[in-house]
Amino acid sequence: MSFRITYSVLNADMSELHREFDGVLAKVKSGLGKEFPYWANGKERQSGSFIDDKNPADTRQLLARFHKTPTKELDAIFGASKKAFTHWRLTPWKERAAIFRKAGDIISERRLEISACMALETGKNRLEALGEVEEAADLFRYHAGQLEESNGFSRPMGKLAPNENTRDVLRPYGTFVVLAPFNFPFALSAGMASGAMLAGNTVVFKPSQETPWVGYHLMDVFREAGLPDNVFQLLYGTGGELGNALIDHPGTDGIAFTGSYDVGMQILSKFTSGRYPRPVILEMGGKNPAIICETANLDKAANGCWRSAFGLTGQKCSALSRVYVHKKVKDAFLAKLVAKTKATVVGDPTRADVFMGPLINDKALQRFEGALADAKKSGKVLAGGENIRTGELAHGHFVSPTVVELPKTHRLFQDELFAPLLVVDTFESLEEAIRLSNAALYGLCAGIFSERKEEVELFMNTMDAGVLYANRETGATTGAWPGVNPFCGWKGSGASGKGICGPYYVSQFAREQSQTIME
Q: Which of 128, 210, 283, 416 is flagged as catalytic?
């Protein structure tokens, strides 16, 4: 591949890339149906009880089978993690950083294979899958850089006496449980896990039950990079059984979780009710708005909104899900947006011409159908609104990208759907649009399209969200990148006030200690 794929690539020549991807995809498909172990206590383990990983684009196709981790083994697993911690915490920070830089290089070398597996497993189109794999590699490099730039999170302090030497250091907590989502199964897993391990913690990792295959690739990368045994252990299971057992286990010293608001708040409530506070790092979704001003470049606005609303079938915490458009440009903007939406190619996400693949499972499909039925009662469907069950799409979770005009008081302006359904209403003043945008439980991403500097400045200074964009054609609310766009959830979108992709992320996985030595 002659260039890197990020979420902002629009007009590059992709012909060579697609040829390379097709070749690797054929090889990956030729090996479907294998069984994979979980990794614990330094070795592959098999239980005989499986998670069957099906292709959401064709649920008849078994991608692979993964041995579930019995909860009765958790005591031994945490014991191994605690033993590894005694050595890993003392590993010089330069060695830890070198391991993760090597892991980033390995990911870049394997990007086509990992991306092909991801496209099959998540329903993500090939360019988004490639972008996510590159993001994971850059997260390793960026997080290692935070360790390097801070001298291993150690700095000298002031003196009260000539013979007093004091340093401020950050020290790890112990073992972090990392619970990953299905929608960014590689980048978010890599980001959370690397943050914890670079800070000196060990990790017990459970990928989503919907995307276990990509989790196995992450384990394989760590093994090749030379990560010591049991610093990272890979377990498979459901959230209700294994996930809850990990949260409840007394060996869990901290949790990093990305997922829904409801589950995140349950984790926060349960995990912080013990004898003393323990760290919980949460990213919990969004209900992200875009504001289209009277002065907006409507072509850029329509393209940016379309890409952010329907990329990964709307199954992103950063996805655009509501638009407030100035009443004077409503008709012109909607004409452009609806045209783009109707022209969206929906289908097998491994095909080069497909933009939008399937929803992840039946539950997501039912949620979309319920929201659509509710929207039809109160508003007007401008594009989409179909459950596609014909031809080659008959056995997948396919729907059409949907735009609905609704009154701004409707629940769909507030409820996160994780589906390709975009709601639209008008505003008369920017102050009104910002007030409406802020009137939500969530505060993750927001975007504005305006050619007036003062409008952009007002938006930047008054929006209650952690990730803001102005006039971004490549994605009105999506496309954050390590070291470029810190990705931090406010309000119901996050718990720590420091986001992945940002300069303060790794330090969250450690606690401050003052060390004074008298000479």
A: 283
Give the residue range(s) of CATH 3.40.605.10 domains in the chain.
Answer: 17-284+497-518
Q: Domain 288-482, CATH 3.40.309.10 — does that match? A: yes
Alpha helices in 323-443 (DSSP H): 330-342, 362-378, 430-438
Q: Is 408 helix (H, G, I), strand (E, B) or coil?
A: coil
95 a catalytic residue: no
What is the rounded end-to-end Cα distance, in angstroms, of the chain? 57
- What are the two backbone dihedrals, phi and then psi, of residue 142, each rounded to the nearest 5 degrees? -70, -45
SS (H, E, C) 162-231: CCEEEEEEEEECCEEEEECCCCCCCHHHHHHHHHHHHCCCEEEEECCCCCHHHHHHHHHHHHHHCCCCCC
CB of 403 closer than 8 Å to CB of 322: no
- What does the DSSP 8-state code read for residue 60? E
**Region(s) of the chain under CATH 3.40.309.10:** 288-482
pLDDT in tens, 438-491: 999 999 999 999 999 999 999 999 999 999 999 999 999 999 999 999 999 999
Question: What's the rounded Cα separation, in Å, for the pair 441 and 273?
Answer: 23
Catalytic-labelled residue, pool 317, 445, 488, 501: 317
Directed axis angle between helix 430-438 and helix 453-462, to 10°?
Answer: 30
- Alpha carbons 427 and 153: distance in angstroms, whole number: 48
What is the tens place of the pLDDT at every residue in 388-413? Answer: 999 999 999 999 999 999 999 999 99
pLDDT single digits (tens) 491-519: 999 999 999 999 999 999 999 999 999 99
Q: How far apart are CA 250 and CA 292, in angstroms?
A: 50
Write the CB contacts of 295 (distance below 8 Å, at least 6 apart in sequence): 450, 451, 452, 455
17-284+497-518 CATH fold: Aldehyde Dehydrogenase; Chain A, domain 1 (3.40.605)
Question: Closest Cα to residue 288, out of 441, 445, 473, 467?
Answer: 445
**β-pairing verdict for 38-40 and 43-45:** antiparallel
Q: Scan for tokens 């290089």, then name that residue.
A: 105
For the chain, the C-alpha Rg in angstroms (whole number) is: 23
d(CA 466, CA 281): 15
- CA distances 158 to 107, 165, 510, 512, 514, Å, are 42, 8, 22, 16, 11
Residue 305 annotated as catalytic: no
**What single-letter amino acid sits at 20?**
E
Phi-psi region of 182 (alpha: psi -120 to 50; beta: other; left: phi over 0): alpha
Rounded Cα–Cα distance for residues 268 and 493 (Å): 13
